[in-house]
């Protein structure tokens, strides 16, 4: 068995959006970077592959192009607010081309083991074909001083277990394998979808429309708030702003729940029956699901209790027969290449609960190993969060001004964050990684001097306070800031609702100041 050795300053595992942005941020700070990618293309899940993991044929991103973007590489103007997966794949490739990232990537390499040898990281890989199978018996060994794992938290499908599912005569698949009704032999069939996240809703609508399925049912254990992708004519994620985060959580939930009910009707009316408040969960975004429920094209059912042949029984005592079952039940973090000692320091066994400082660093390992993209945005996209993490990692690699706190302080911070998470989100596996992007990015950016300074530019401050601000706001300051950031922030639409609220608050403040001055003059001026 032959082997070759390749040395880099930093190795990045994965060439999805998190891996690419990590490579770019590290390279612009002068490091030699090597990226190891299992497939033959960049983009990760955003690359459509008919016979492999990746997006469905119908997939559009459910976050607007203003917030799901690289900070210094905005989408072209002619791309719609919610790009199709083909637009997304093209955008990612254009980003890789512009910043010279393709030359850093070794494609069709599967990581077998990662070891820490002295002060170096050693990554052992094998060559694989398009089908993911190993080719030949030679191994490639990479060494580096720093390592970024960017394989993300959508690595391994999570399969539920139901009594009697082995008796089901039809096909049972996971959403990761779903492409379209014809490819997956769902067209014209009775389909049961388990789960009510964004993938579940996309599959349900796809089967009900393109699949011409006579019956489509969504089974949900906890219910959901279905959020339209536009509110008052603007993308919904543009309303996630610093102003809104000032509201007490109970008030914010009341406001958002009222807006949803005014636009789509009460979720209880449509049988969605959410067990959580609207801002206690990952949003399920759909412009059409409620309409299909209204027209009886899609039904909502509670959790499955057991399966008997083609008949599925639900917890409310009802049952129905189906030809296909699609599990849209999320994913598990999978890090098979890590040694057990490090894996135990990173991930709680059997769960998606990570043991990382700020979702990035293991206190017992230190700054040489970073986990980029192991976070779930509550609104907005993963790209800005991964990019902020990567910029922080790049500064830590320098080991000069930016450093990690002590092990004790990191563990204390993690304990505080865990308690905060438990109070903030409804308790499910999908919420263990959940963060509000604006709050999280501000927190991480403040650690290396890139948090937006709202006092430095009053005009931009208004847009950053009463609008989402878009991806470029974290390039206003700090290392490798972007001169085009102010102009790009101005291109992000400002929600009229918050803008009007801001003007009313400003007018109220001016009236208050005027009345105070008049009272002062009446009392003390002669």
Any overview of this molecule?
- The protein has 526 residues and is an alpha/beta fold.
- It has two domains: 262 residues, 3-Layer(bba) Sandwich (FAD/NAD(P)-binding domain); 171 residues, FAD/NAD(P)-binding domain (3-Layer(bba) Sandwich).
- The protein contains 13 helices and 23 strands.
- The strands form seven sheets. Strands 1, 2, 3, 4, 5, 6 and 21 form a seven-stranded mixed sheet that branches.
- Helix 1 packs parallel to helix 8 and helix 8 packs parallel to helix 10.
- The model has no long low-confidence stretch (mean pLDDT 92).
- Keywords: Endoplasmic reticulum, FAD, Flavoprotein, Membrane, Monooxygenase, NADP, Oxidoreductase, Transmembrane, Transmembrane helix.
- This is Flavin-containing monooxygenase.
- Pfam families: FMO-like.
CATH superfamily of the largest domain: FAD/NAD(P)-binding domain
Main sheet, how many strands, which sense, barrel? 7 strands, mixed
Structural class: alpha/beta
What is the CA–CA distance across the termini?
99 Å
Count of DSSP strands: 23
Shape: globular
Strand content: 15-25%
Mean pLDDT: 92
The helix content is 25-40%
Computed CA radius of gyration, to the nearest angstrom:
25 Å
- Report the top-level CATH class of the largest domain: Alpha Beta
Low-confidence stretches at least 5 residues in length (pLDDT < 50)?
none
Q: Under the CATH scheme, which architecture of the largest domain would be assigned?
A: 3-Layer(bba) Sandwich
DSSP helical segment count:
13
Total count of domains: 2
- CATH topology of the largest domain, which one? FAD/NAD(P)-binding domain
């Amino acid at each position: 068995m032959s082997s070759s050795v390749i040395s880099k300053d930093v190795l990045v595992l994965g060439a999805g959006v998190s891996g690419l942005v990590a490579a770019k941020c590290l390279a612009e700070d002068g490091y030699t970077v090597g990226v190891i990618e299992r497939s033959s293309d960049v983009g990760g899940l955003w690359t459509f592959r008919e016979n492999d993991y990746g997006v469905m044929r119908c997939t559009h991103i459910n976050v607007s192009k203003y917030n799901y973007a690289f900070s210094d590489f905005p989408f072209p103007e002619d791309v719609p607010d919610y790009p199709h997966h083909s637009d997304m794949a093209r955008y990612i490739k254009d980003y890789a081309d512009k910043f010279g990232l393709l030359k850093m990537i070794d494609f069709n390499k599967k990581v077998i083991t990662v070891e820490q040898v002295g002060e170096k990281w050693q990554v052992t890989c094998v060559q694989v074909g398009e089908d993911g199978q190993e080719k030949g018996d030679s191994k490639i060994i990479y060494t580096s001083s720093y390592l970024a794992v960017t394989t993300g938290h959508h690595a391994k499908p999570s399969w539920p277990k139901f009594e009697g599912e082995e008796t089901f005569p039809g096909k049972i698949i996971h959403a990761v394998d779903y492409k379209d009704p014809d490819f997956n032999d769902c067209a014209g069939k009775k389909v049961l979808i388990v789960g009510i996240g964004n993938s579940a809703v996309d599959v349900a609508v796809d089967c009900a429309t393109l699949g011409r399925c006579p019956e489509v049912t969504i089974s949900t254990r906890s219910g959901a708030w279905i959020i339209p992708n536009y509110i008052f004519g603007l993308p919904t994620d543009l309303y996630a702003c610093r102003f809104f985060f000032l509201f007490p959580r109970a008030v914010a939930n009341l406001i958002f729940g009222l807006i949803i009910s005014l636009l789509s009707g009460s979720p209880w009316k449509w049988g969605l029956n959410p067990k959580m408040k609207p801002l206690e969960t990952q949003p399920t975004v759909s412009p059409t699901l409620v309409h299909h429920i209204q027209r009886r094209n899609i039904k909502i059912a509670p959790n499955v209790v057991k399966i008997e042949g083609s008949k599925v029984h639900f917890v409310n005592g009802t049952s129905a027969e189906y030809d296909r079952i699609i599990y849209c039940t999320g994913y598990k973090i999978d890090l098979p290449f890590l040694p057990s000692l490090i894996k135990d320091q990173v991930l709680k066994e059997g769960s998606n609960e990570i043991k990382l400082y700020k979702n990035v660093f293991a206190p017992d390992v230190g700054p040489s190993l970073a986990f980029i993209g192991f976070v779930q945005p509550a609104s907005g996209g993963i790209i800005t969060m991964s990019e902020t993490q990567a910029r922080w990692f790049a500064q830590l690699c320098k080991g000069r001004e930016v450093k990690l706190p002590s092990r004790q302080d990191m563990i204390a911070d993690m304990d505080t964050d865990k308690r905060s998470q438990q109070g903030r989100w409804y308790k499910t596996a999908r919420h263990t990684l959940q963060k509000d992007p604006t709050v999280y990015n501000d927190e991480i950016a403040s650690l290396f001097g890139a948090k937006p300074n709202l006092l430095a530019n009053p005009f931009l401050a208004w847009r950053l306070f009463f609008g989402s601000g878009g991806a470029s706001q974290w390039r206003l300051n700090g290392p490798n800031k972007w001169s085009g950031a102010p102009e790009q922030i101005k291109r992000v639409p400002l929600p009229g609702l918050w803008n009007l609220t801001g003007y009313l608050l400003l007018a109220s403040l001016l009236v208050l100041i005027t009345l105070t001055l008049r009272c002062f003059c009446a009392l003390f001026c002669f």
